[in-house]
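Fig. S4 source data, part A: sequence.
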Amino acid sequence: MTKPAYVGAVDQGTTSTRFFVFDHHGKIVSRAQLEHQQIYPKPGWVEHDPIEIRDRAYEVIQKGLKDADISPGQLAAVGMTNQRETTVLWNPKTGEPYYNAIVWQDTRTESICRELAVDGDMECFRDRVGLPLSTYFSGPKIKWLIKHVDGLQTAMEKGAVMFGNMDAWLIWWLSGGPNGGLHMTDVSNASRTMLMNIETLAWDPEMLSAMDISDKILPEIRSSSEVYGYTAPDGVFGAKIPLAGILGDQQAALFGQACFTPGEAKNTYGTGCFLLMNTGEQIVHSTQGLLTTPAYRIGGQAPVYALEGSIAIAGSLVQWVRDNLGLIAASEDIESLALSVDDNGGIYFVPAFSGLFAPHWRSDARGVITNLTHYINKGHIARAVLEASAFQTKEIFDAMEKDSGIQLKALKVDGGMVANDLLMQFQSDILDLPVICPKNGETTVLGAAYAAGLAVGFWSDLRELRRHWEIARQWDSRMGEDERCRLYEGWMKAVYKSYA
């Protein structure tokens, strides 16, 4: 029998679902992508239709296999990466969601988070779960659903509810759904719920009690790389293929960037921005507003941890300028518009549309543009839009160095905005460090494929994966120290003005 020559991976993201096929060198053989609807029922509310996302996943899997011109049996394994924190509750007998998926950006749980804070301390659970109380995470979203969806409390008590982030939702369907589907997640996704203890890597009874959530609804926590089970023979793949790797999208990008050594860091520029630094087997409890999270766990090996800084609005700010202001026709036009001026004209755009995430954690912050004058035109606004992602990244970068005691030497980058040369050069300038882009920019889905392939022996070890990583481009700082300090000081003043 011919040995399988490929690994497949699903990337379920905030705005679209994708399926990739990779060969043994980590090269892309095929890819398929479909967007799904963004639902905004009220200001600050963001939802997705879980059934639409499932169906999109089925479609891109079928197209990806067809475009690769391979049979399912040629896949050694399938991996999964996903938007984290986005929360689904569904009926295990029918597979019907009880409500739309509540997306990670959604802010409706702000009052719940305040109520959960012991003596008003939003950091009260940090030592246990590595996270501050925030609308960002899944636990408060579950609590909101149970409180507001009729009959859900009773259904939960009867064991007629399953919870999952998008990884658990899709794995359940791919492995059979109501007919014996696997209900499971990995440590990287479980860590984003506020319900998992980051030391024991198990669901924490105290957190479940605090949020009035039954452990009956929770998926089993597994490692990031092992054979969990198989795709359903009568499902979309039409064959039994090992389901063998799961990583939340940002941990997957860290893995795909081969950041296997403590002190290595990557930033993903997508809908939001997510900067992660490998801290090895050491749990670093942040005092600078960062998140402490499992980066990955390979089978029965010790878990590897990371510090993370999350920025809610990055690429989505470019989309907002395109769709809401109409300043550009396509997202890629933002760079040429920004290049029509020499600098930002003194303005700063703080995109706190859903509050500020790391390192501020201010859910009351709101977006502002500061220092407007008659001189400002749309080119200056475009430039300030791009610079906002770089400034926010510097805030997190500085916090990571303070928390870890490690002076970072470079920043690996990936995501859609890496194609923007102006942004990448400014990022290098404001950090005063090299910014490095790999040849394979699809690091998130590649990380999920790597995790799945390792579990079945398709790749031998991390050293082999590191050999696949190659530099495509590097940006080096060209900005003077005085200019760097002046710009950053202006940014911090603008941030404080965003506080309500």
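Fig. S4 source data, part B ends here. Residues 290 and 309 are 5 Å apart (CA to CA).
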